TrEMBL record:
PANTHER family: SERINE PROTEASE INHIBITOR RV3364C (PTHR36222:SF1). This is Dynein regulation protein LC7. SUPFAM superfamilies: Roadblock/LC7 domain. Pfam families: Robl_LC7. InterPro entries: Mycobact_SerProt_Inhib_Rv3364c, Roadblock/LAMTOR2_dom. Residues 9-100 form the Roadblock/LAMTOR2 domain. It comes from Streptomyces gougerotii.
Length: 135
């Protein structure tokens, strides 16, 4: 049985409160469905999750061009006018995405994201979908 999204949201609060400049946090499945969010609005989180599915696929394709790479994406960082976007692998079939403003400390957010993934990575795993059924 799949856990309800609300059960995951509280886990993201510490990341938001521990890093100045964080605007929105989204946990998503590899197929682009939102698992959890903190900050921002639900529709925005759904759009971020959908966009991340393509981005992680693109990153994996680029990784295959790096000699001795296993082809798995670990982290993508995009600098945007007004802020940054971070996407990190967060367990089998799950990803952690964070939007920040320009004031964020890049080293701090990267370290805190890694810490979060290590501490609760097993909770951020998205089970594979089979024929559209949930159980």
């Amino acid at each position: 049985m799949i856990q309800q999204r609300a059960n995951f949201d509280w886990m993201l609060k510490e990341l938001d409160e521990g890093v100045p400049g964080v605007q929105q946090i989204v946990v998503l499945s590899a197929d682009g469905l939102r698992i959890a969010r903190y900050g921002g609005d639900p529709d925005g989180a759904d759009r971020i999750a959908a966009a991340c599915a393509g981005l992680q696929s693109l990153a994996a394709a680029v990784a295959t061009e790096i000699p001795d790479s296993d082809g798995r994406m670990r982290m993508v960082v995009i600098e945007i006018d007004g802020g940054f976007f971070y996407l990190m692998a967060a367990g089998a079939g799950a990803y952690l995405a964070v939007l920040t403003d320009e004031t964020v400390d890049a080293g701090l957010i990267g370290n805190r994201m890694r810490d979060l993934v290590i501490r609760i990575g097993s909770h951020l795993t998205s089970p594979p979908r089979h024929g559209g059924s949930t159980g």
